[in-house]
């Protein structure tokens, strides 16, 4: 039975890129609807023949799942931010990196417009936090090779607010992306879907998910991180957590908190801690049952 990954899903049809190179148009078995499971781009699946057509018979276990945009098994999330126009919010960037870490995805910070204002101060914050950083110069192409290296062997997506240069970056990396998107949609005869569906392309020994309108992850309920897990979404906190005086320390107002002490000593960046505190205060009163 053919196996492969879902390259794209449109209006109840799924296009599975098989390991033998063929692209199969499939429908999903009815059992998934009963189980309230929807196949999404990035899913690894097994395809069977049924009544003369192809059906997705099995969705293999997922490493992770994002609801908006709908994508599974993401390995790397490139968080694209510009140094100016628009000025980045470290809280937004830290929410995105935290969600990635919480879902087992490697965040990579990509800074654009370094020619207009130096990205170094921001780059230093994230390097200190252990997050890989790439500074891109769209004119010279500097930084593009580093991004290609992160793509190799991985399923990647790019997110960033409008105006940060995400489309320019993608076009510089994979010039055929916009052409491919248009031609595939034309071939499928569903051109009006081009701007709304996630589609996966192979490039640089890995895969890039083209996620139109992916300015930001749904940082609220779909990507909710519980207050207990939030500390682990900031990996630079981990060495200090066992040193806190109280088990279950929230790293907010407790006595002898090793994380707060590390912030005071400059071992953890103040802006990262401020983001943690803001996110903690947002979720501390939410009960798990309220999300379902």
Automatic annotation (TrEMBL):
Similarity section: Belongs to the TRAFAC class YlqF/YawG GTPase family. RsgA subfamily.
Function comment: One of several proteins that assist in the late maturation steps of the functional core of the 30S ribosomal subunit. Helps release RbfA from mature subunits. May play a role in the assembly of ribosomal proteins into the subunit. Circularly permuted GTPase that catalyzes slow GTP hydrolysis, GTPase activity is stimulated by the 30S ribosomal subunit.
Gene Ontology cellular-component annotations: cytoplasm
Domain EngC GTPase: 72-215
Cofactor, how bound (note): Binds 1 zinc ion per subunit.
Keyword RNA-binding carried by entry: yes
NCBIfam families: ribosome small subunit-dependent GTPase A (TIGR00157)
Subunit structure: Monomer. Associates with 30S ribosomal subunit, binds 16S rRNA.
Pfam families reported in the protein's UniProt record: RsgA_GTPase (PF03193), RsgA_N (PF16745)
GO molecular function terms noted in the UniProt entry: GTP binding; GTPase activity; metal ion binding; rRNA binding
Record organism: Candidatus Allofournierella pullistercoris
Primary enzyme class: hydrolase
Subcellular location: Cytoplasm
Protein name: Small ribosomal subunit biogenesis GTPase RsgA
EC number: 3.6.1.-
Gene, per the UniProt record: rsgA
